[in-house]
Amino acid sequence: MQEAFFAGAAFAAGAAAQAAGGAWAQCGGQNWVSPTTCVSGYTCVFVNQWYSQCQPGAAGPTTTLATSTRPASSSTAAPSPSTAPGKFKWFGTNQAGGEFGEKTYPGVWGTHFIFPDNQAIQTLIGQGYNTFRVGFAMERLAQNGITGSFDAGYLRNFSASINFITNAGAYAVLDPHNYGRYFGDIITNTNDFKTFWTNLAKQFVNNPRVIFDTNNEYHTMSQDLVLQLNQAAIDGIRAAGATSQYIWVEGNSWTGAWTWNTTNTNLVALTDPQNKMIYQMHQYLDADGSGTSPNCVSAQIGLQRVVGATQWLRANGKLGVLGEFAGGPNNVCKEAVKGLLDHLKANSDVWQGALWWAGGPWWGDYMFSFEPPSGTGYTNYNSILRAYI
């Protein structure tokens, strides 16, 4: 989850009050009263009863509504889904705590940071959740330099959490929750970043249920640097001999799904010799997309903010996962979250799963807490999320 967010343009009904909808604008849906035409080069595509969108397609303004729930197809062949249609490969929660106590390094386990509660993880696995993204701080693992040896105590406790998850039959995502930074400075040395990832991947090279996440939410960085860091991480992981595991790459601008198709287009150039690379995006539903408010823009905002990313994935033959999402404890957000997940599941040929933000034993009364048995997010959303397992 981000600590700040540059405000991107959210979809709004008033923006459509023009002669024809612009690129990616809303152009239809139940109770929609604005024009249903699109600018030249875009066509109005039906997404669900609430929302249609101007997407690249037939030239000339049009009011044609497709009957498919999927975005318009492109000339680029979509990848073959790695799981059954309409079913997610990965569905679960983030597990925060190992990255807590930011700026207090190395800190003390149990005082400044904590790792997941095994009993809570087991409860969620017992309900069908199968993927847990476990946050950690690079500064605590590699305390004496990004290419240096790992701290034995921190590695031991982190590995114990990862091994518990994978031994229980679930997937564990290794999440360096660093925003593309190390001790507060943007990581610019791609060779050092590659070495860090080679060192870390060697610790889990024989665990096929481990997933490597290159870094959490790159932001306000050179777009080319984000590309190069991701590629260095991929190269470092594969150089360690970790060839069976998936790698989740993240984008700039907090890896937001709602700006992906305009911000992170260069990441299409990433390559993985094992062809097990997944594009990880995050999406929150409040006004600025930061996930800091319990209020969602509308009941349709979940779908609206990811549909452009869906089109980008399919057009480029890529696979994605929504690595963070959440909604506040209210009915508008519940409908928005259901709309979001309905869209992802309807497009599971490109969307491989989604993870709620966030579980962890130190959340207290945090509005999104998915910690059993009484976390606010858990009590409000568990029954909703379980319908998508």
Automatic annotation (TrEMBL):
It comes from Podospora australis. Residues 62-87 are annotated as: Disordered. It catalyses: Endohydrolysis of (1->4)-beta-D-glucosidic linkages in cellulose, lichenin and cereal beta-D-glucans. One of its GO terms (cellular component) is extracellular region. This is cellulase. Gene3D superfamilies: Glycosidases. GO terms for molecular function: cellulase activity; cellulose binding. It is an enzyme of class 3 (hydrolase). It comes from the Eukaryota.
